[in-house]
């Protein structure tokens, strides 16, 4: 059975959210640093509600204790107002 990860075991920078601002006619990329602050190995994955617009590279991985990874999160160009809905990106840790 999988164990849940304590809130302080994973650190992200930025630690709250990233925001993609206009103009939306170009692809924008931000980077997130994910750090395993625990004493055990953990697996992580990003999932999104809009795979056509939001991209993550790499989308999943494993971090040894005190190891970190730099993740590129990109938002592809799109026509604002012609596409509805919110786009979310979630970090899943196991």
From TrEMBL:
Keyword terms, alphabetized: Cell projection, Cytoplasm, Cytoskeleton
A GO CC term assigned to this protein in UniProt: cytoskeleton
Cell location: Cell projection, Pseudopodium; Cytoplasm, Cytoskeleton
Domain of life the protein comes from: Eukaryota
Main location: other
Cited PROSITE patterns: MSP
Protein task: Central component in molecular interactions underlying sperm crawling. Forms an extensive filament system that extends from sperm villipoda, along the leading edge of the pseudopod.
Protein name: MSP domain-containing protein
Biological source species: Pristionchus pacificus (Parasitic nematode worm)
